[in-house]
Write a sequence for this structure.
């Protein structure tokens, strides 16, 4: 391991005894971890060989926090989400603000800090991530300080979104954001998770940038309905390695969406385990890379019960020297009879020098299933450009219209419609920066 990520550093973070013990157990195993390389299939095409953990250190309990109030850069997204049921502001992995509608609190809805000692947190924390461990989930567990906890009891419907703002900053720091969502039986809720960091260079030239090692756990009980949206808008000097994993129960549904626009290198491992008969999972993503960005997605649709359904649609675009990677697996276990699973990844390469990789995979162990996958990588269709230009539309405007049209079917399915317009504006800014 590195000189900074030690058991002593994990212990020094403080907090309740149960959390300190949990951190130390993970930290003591870090020396035995084999760190990934691009030679491994799951890290193929990644930039993991460029990650030098010696450039980073974990927070200490004495590092300055954020005064109570909106997180830098977080206010606009909270406002754009419209009316909300609750708000959690997390600064460098530590909760600094919680709000919840009083009527929902009276019904048993809970918004809290993971480090609060809530029994439900202690029982559920790590359920999803421990089922899919890797080197970075172990590092995350060793230096987890806190994070957002959202719990909705059985039968309760939360009509408005719960917004979580994760703001990460500090040159040479590694931070460990965490969101844990518990949706009780027959409950319903929408969660918006926004991950962001400064878009300016580190002070005095910097050099380390910032490392975000994030985990999101979604536990969806029987017959519950969860809509989840992750918006990643990190600054250009941030590396992100994140796991988002859901366990979906009988007749429950998860509609999970991701928008990835920022970061230097940003990796998201998005996994959905369907554990109960009739469970459903829809996985959506929009991503756009420019400059020298790399956006890296690894997905798993894991069916472990009969009559389950999953559908994945990931759409991305890259320009300049940016690169994207999509690698997805549909796994149909022997118990997944009469399952229906589909996986689609589409990519636009807008300029010479940019590139996209798409690797769909199937693993089928049941004999009565429906399963499909498709992927494309290519430039804008010349016939589409010609059609628009012959109708008096300038070439640059035609390109913008085609790219926005390419993304529109995903934008239309995002669970918070009020966020579509500002996200479209960000895509437009990326398209038009080359002409500036």
């Amino acid at each position: 391991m590195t000189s900074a990520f030690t058991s002593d550093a994990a212990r020094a973070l403080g907090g309740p005894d149960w959390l300190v013990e949990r951190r130390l157990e993970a930290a003591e195993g870090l020396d035995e971890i084999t760190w990934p390389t691009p030679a491994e299939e799951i890290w193929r095409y990644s930039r993991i060989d460029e990650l030098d953990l010696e450039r980073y250190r974990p927070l200490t309990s004495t590092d300055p926090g954020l005064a109570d109030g909106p997180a830098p850069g977080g206010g606009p997204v909270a406002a754009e989400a419209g009316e909300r049921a609750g708000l959690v502001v997390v600064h460098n992995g530590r909760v600094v603000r919680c709000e919840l509608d009083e009527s929902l609190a009276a019904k048993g809805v809970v918004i809290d800090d993971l480090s609060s000692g809530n029994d439900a947190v202690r029982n559920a924390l790590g359920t999803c991530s421990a089922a899919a461990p890797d080197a970075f989930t172990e590092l995350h567990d060793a230096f987890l300080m806190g994070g957002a906890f959202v719990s909705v009891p059985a039968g309760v419907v939360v009509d408005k979104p719960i917004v979580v703002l994760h703001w990460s900053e500090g040159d040479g720091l590694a931070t460990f954001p965490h969101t844990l969502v518990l949706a009780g039986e027959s409950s319903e809720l929408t969660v918006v998770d926004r991950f962001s960091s400064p878009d300016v260079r580190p002070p005095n030239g910097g050099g380390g940038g910032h490392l975000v090692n994030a985990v999101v756990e979604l536990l969806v009980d029987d017959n519950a309905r969860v809509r989840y949206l992750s918006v990643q808008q990190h600054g250009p000097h941030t590396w992100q390695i994140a796991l988002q994993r859901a366990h979906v129960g009988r007749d429950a549904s998860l509609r999970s969406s991701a928008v990835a626009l920022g970061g230097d290198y940003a990796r998201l491992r998005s996994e959905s385990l369907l554990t109960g008969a009739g469970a459903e999972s829809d996985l959506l993503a929009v991503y756009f890379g420019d400059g020298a960005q790399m956006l890296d997605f690894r997905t798993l649709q894991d069916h472990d019960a009969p009559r389950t359904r999953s559908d994945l649609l990931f759409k991305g675009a890259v320009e300049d020297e940016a690169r994207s990677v999509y690698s997805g697996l549909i796994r149909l276990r022997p118990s997944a009879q009469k399952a229906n699973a589909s996986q689609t990844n589409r990519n636009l390469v807008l300029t010479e020098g940019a590139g996209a990789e798409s690797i769909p995979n199937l693993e089928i162990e049941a004999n009565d299933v429906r399963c499909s996958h498709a992927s494309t990588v290519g430039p804008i269709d010349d016939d589409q450009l010609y059609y628009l230009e012959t109708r008096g539309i300038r070439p640059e405007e035609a390109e913008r219209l085609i790219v926005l049209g390419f993304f529109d079917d995903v934008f239309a399915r995002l669970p918070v419609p009020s966020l579509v317009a500002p996200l479209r504006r960000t895509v437009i800014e990326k398209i038009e920066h080359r002409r500036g």
In short: The CA atoms of residues 93 and 145 lie 6 Å apart. The first strand starts at residue 57 and ends at 58. The first helix runs from residue 7 to 12. The chain has one domain: 7-435.
